[in-house]
SET domain-containing protein (Papaver nudicaule), 479 residues
Amino acid sequence: METLEEIKIQHFIQWLEANKAELRGCKIKHCGPNKGFGLFSSSQQQSDQNSRILLVVPLDLSITPMSVLQDPSLGLKCRAMFEQGEVDDRFLMILFLTVERLRKNSLWKPYIDMLPVTFGNPLWFSEDEIMELKGTTLYKATQMQKKKLEHLYEEKVKDLVMEILDGELESEVRYEDFLWANSIFWTRALNIPFPHSYVFPKTLEEENGSVPLDAEGGTLEISPPSMNENGSHGCELASEAGENTVNSAQGESVWVEGLIPGIDFCNHVIKSATTWEVASLGSTTGVPASMYLLSAGQGTIQNEEEICISYGNKGNEELLYLYGFVINDNPDDYLMVHYPVEALHSVPFADSKTQLLEVQKGEMRCLLPRNLLDRGFFSESSLQDEDNVQHRVCSFSWSGQRKIPIYQDKLVFPEEFLTTLRTIAMNEEELFKVSSLLEELVGNEEEKQPSDSEVRAAVWEVCGDSGALQLLVDLLQTR
């Protein structure tokens, strides 16, 4: 008797094949209650490229901002919000997943049934589990993201889903449905180099349709998805792309975030023997405008071996925040050291120091690979050549009264971060001296403003590193 998981796999494979996807050298298996479904090799890979192609999925089967804007039920409403700047492209895909999960007889049901229903990332933690994160940057990031998602659900998602699914809802819209869709996107989305002609077809007649499953097509006039500050977290799954990846009919690609059913079943491994590529013309796969998984080397994947890809060089905090897992002895793990913005408001002369930081382009945080700290504050890099050292002396001190210490070129902490710490650590007398130096520099030219390097030089000449390093020690002890 077939298990529920086997029935789901069977329906999903039928759905893939109906949408012209091809499982060539792999099969789908259930990996267990905590890992869901994964891809496994169905035979030992040979040396020629065609035999090393594991899975081919047409781009028409992808979930992207373009496909959502062309969706018959969501397109018009989403296009209006998108054009008015009310939502971004990621919101479109998360809304689409929310709607299709709740829709009766969704054409995407075989795919959605294969997706996990719970996640291990902190957004799904209990209150007690979240408290275990207190004192880390992950704790604050989780709290902020939860508030943002709850506000977005109440303000935009809830009523919009009810309106779109009028008469189709089998149950009430819940915040958990939106949270689920958000987690699906962040754990499975890829940054994909679509052929330019696919994203921006010349005419409606030339367009083959960007939406699968009998949806109506249409021309688009949108820009490639923007990458905000968190964009480096979820969607950096980069391919060691081949020629087809970067060459379209118009000689360029448009990078778009999206979900590719089937390929998104690959779990993470640090060093992957598998890569993915985009074939614009189909000369490699025989399937135009498609994405495919490719075994990267001869005999690297054995029969029944799980097919994994690399999610990128991510530390454990980032892996936990996005995907809900960590890696023992992660070589890409890093330490984040930051000075909280809210703490800056309470330091003496906060307004003046904030202005100085803005001019200097100081950074409030830095990310360091943990192995850089194996030798303490200092790296193994050698001193720079004499010309560069002399140049840095000039950039730090125009009077030459304070020389750059010999440790400066070996310190592992970025100069932009140390600049911030020097400024924050200044006392009243030092702040007055910095102001005096800058006034002397500007002279009677009222419209002249000191440059960022000149302000840094003034702060360095007055303060040196004593206060900054003490503040750094305090931050590391707190961390």
The CA atoms of residues 107 and 213 lie 7 Å apart. The first strand starts at residue 22 and ends at 23. Residues 137-164 form the longest helix (28 residues). Confidence is low (pLDDT under 50) at residues 203-250, 382-396.
